[in-house]
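User: I'm new to structure prediction. If I give you an amino acid sequence, what do you actually give back? Let's try with this one:
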Amino acid sequence: AGIESATLLDLLGLPNVSVFGEEQTRRLNLEAQRFWILGLWIGIAGNLLRMVRAFAYAPVPQHGEGYGTGDGEKSSPAAAGDEKRAENEGKTENGEEEKLDWEAERKRLRAIVLRRRQERKRWRAHVAGTVRSLGRRVISDALDSLIPAAALGWFDIGAGAVAVAMLGSTWITSRDVWERCGALVAARRGA
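Assistant: Good question. You get back a string of structure tokens that encode the predicted 3D arrangement of the chain. For your 191 residues, that looks like this:
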């Protein structure tokens, strides 16, 4: 809606109404189409890059002391150099070994695994939604680029094919907007 809009009066073809003249109008419109297709291609490249980057922010697993136990950064008594206390922790006053409560340990570990699975599931759902939305934008921009490409003479396609591509682009874009608004309404109702 930039350069080509300035030539609208010339493009209407009204007698004795001309701002730029026929040759200048044709040149300005070609430049407008070049800028438009350049903008669309930059948008496609940017969205493809965002799709790749969406996978880059995966949840990082824990590391170091307490890995896989859910203890976080707690240090064990043995790591603190108190080995004798670590040996005696498992014994009662009578010197007998305490029976480990295996069921409690099993429940604790299951809770840790379940929490991590849920985090991973949420991350996958977020990435899937992001990639789906960006993929739609890429397809929409690719379809939109048919108009300036046809105007520049890069593709020999008819007006009907361009119209079908624009219909598809409009449908894809409206579906993305519809889903985004639906998610916003659902979030407001849930709050």
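You can read the tokens as a compact description of the fold. Here is one thing that stands out. The chain has a mean pLDDT of 79.
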